[in-house]
């Protein structure tokens, strides 16, 4: 019997059912998804709703909402863009659920007044949502009048308004939780402004950029720490602002204003009036001709109470004005812990270099020596006049802690000017004087004794 070959048993192969990798986007924790959405434009955040079921309704719980023209596809028709932007805001607010902490609306283009009713409606909705931060920045033919409903919103912590008109109701008593207020190109009456500031007991940061409607700035804010003022006013009064640490003032002041007679009175001193309320000042920037305002009245040689916390000082000085020079010296003598000094030189009528000075510096140099503790000095806008050089000479002579002085000319330096700087005595043996000039090969020149 012929035996055939033994056939192998054919065992069916085991089929392995390979499961697809889990959807990593869907598996992200909720707080991670929330964090991702905060970095996206509203338009992109809404688009994430198609990613998965878990993402579908995430965008409409975003607590921070920012709307600008980036939310709309770029097209040439500005009116169409504007309408789409307003429609997007309406759509998001309609479907939004949960609290809205921040709402920002930016539009750098001029919008029609017909859309202002939409903005009124948004503000009413936001005040009912316990909004904490509100930023409105847009342009219209006139000022946008803030609706009264906003003044009843006591949840506000931060408020920034641009090109608006503030007319609070007579019953308005302030924003009790407001910590920062930024008014840019805003109009508000004198009494309304003062009531607004004094009615914000927690206010820590205040910015006033070309605010219209009043000429005198009166500020009473016991917790204010940062102040920036830019505009044309007749004067500034501080009351109970003892926590102010950072002050930036870019103010144009007319010395001849009739209403500023108090500032020019011989019996008064703007310097004392201002610094009596700034005992904790740490950083001070004085631009335009505000130093001229501080110099009005009787100038002390130094302040009765020194600015012991002041470490940074920036001054804009008219070197043709002896009073401004004296005001600057008063501040320098009154700042025992000053570390950095920046000066921008400007003159109403430039004197020619090396012409006789308009006043006598011998009187200043003959005064009792008061050391200045500054370590770093930068002087910009130098024309090389005798007035400027005398001030540089003074700083070098009475700054024993000076480490570095940087001088930036408006025009190319001359050999005579360099030789003059070399001859200046220095109280600090470590003082390095650097002359920065774009005409130099290395853009700077180190001047040694």
Automatic annotation (TrEMBL):
Residue ranges, annotated region (Disordered): 1-22
Residue stretches making up the F-box domain: 22-70
SUPFAM superfamilies attached to this UniProt entry: F-box domain, RNI-like
Coiled coil regions, renumbered to chain: none
Database matches in SMART domains: FBOX (SM00256)
Pfam families noted in UniProt: F-box, LRR_At5g56370
Source species, domain of life: Eukaryota
Descriptive protein name: F-box/RNI/FBD-like domain protein
């Amino acid at each position: 019997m012929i035996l055939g070959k033994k056939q192998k048993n054919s065992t069916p192969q085991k089929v392995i059912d390979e499961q697809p990798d889990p959807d990593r986007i869907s598996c992200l924790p909720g707080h991670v998804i929330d964090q991702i959405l905060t970095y996206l434009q509203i338009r992109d955040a809404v688009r994430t709703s198609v990613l998965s079921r878990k993402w579908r309704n995430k965008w409409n719980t975003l607590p921070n909402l920012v709307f600008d023209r980036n939310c709309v596809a770029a097209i040439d028709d500005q009116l169409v863009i504007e309408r789409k932007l307003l429609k997007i805001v309406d759509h998001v607010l309609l479907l939004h659920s949960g609290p809205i902490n921040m709402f920002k609306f930016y539009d750098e283009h001029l919008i029609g007044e017909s859309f202002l009713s939409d903005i009124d409606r948004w503000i009413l909705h936001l005040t009912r949502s316990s909004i904490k931060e509100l930023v409105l920045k847009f342009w219209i033919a006139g000022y946008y009048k803030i609706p009264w409903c906003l003044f009843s919103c006591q949840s506000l912590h931060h408020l920034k308004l641009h090109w608006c008109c503030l007319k609070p109701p007579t019953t308005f008593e302030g924003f009790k939780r407001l910590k920062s207020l930024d008014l840019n190109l805003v109009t508000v009456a004198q009494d309304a402004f003062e009531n607004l500031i004094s009615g914000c007991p927690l206010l820590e940061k205040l910015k006033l950029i070309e605010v219209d409607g009043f000429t005198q700035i009166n500020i009473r804010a016991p917790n204010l720490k940062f102040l920036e003022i830019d505009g044309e006013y007749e004067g500034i009064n501080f009351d109970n602002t003892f926590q102010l640490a950072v002050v930036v003032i870019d103010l144009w002041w007319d010395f001849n204003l009739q209403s500023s007679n108090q500032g020019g009175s011989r019996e008064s001193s703007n310097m004392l009036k201002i610094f009596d309320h700034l005992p904790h000042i740490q950083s001070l920037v004085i631009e335009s001709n505000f130093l001229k305002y501080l110099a009005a009245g009787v100038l002390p040689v130094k302040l009765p109470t020194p600015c012991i916390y002041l470490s940074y000082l920036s001054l804009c000085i008219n070197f043709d004005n002896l009073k401004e020079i004296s005001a600057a010296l008063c501040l320098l003598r009154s700042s025992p812990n000053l570390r950095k000094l920046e000066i921008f030189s400007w003159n109403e009528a430039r004197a020619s270099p090396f012409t006789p000075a308009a006043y006598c510096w011998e009187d200043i140099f003959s005064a009792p020596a008061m050391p200045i503790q500054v370590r770093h000095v930068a002087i910009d806008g130098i024309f090389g006049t005798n007035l400027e050089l005398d001030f540089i000479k003074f700083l070098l002579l009475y700054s024993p802690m000076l480490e570095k002085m940087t001088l930036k000319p408006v025009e190319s330096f001359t050999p005579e000017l360099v030789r003059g700087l070399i001859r200046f005595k220095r109280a600090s043996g470590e003082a390095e004087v650097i002359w920065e000039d774009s005409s130099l090969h290395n853009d700077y020149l180190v001047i040694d004794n």
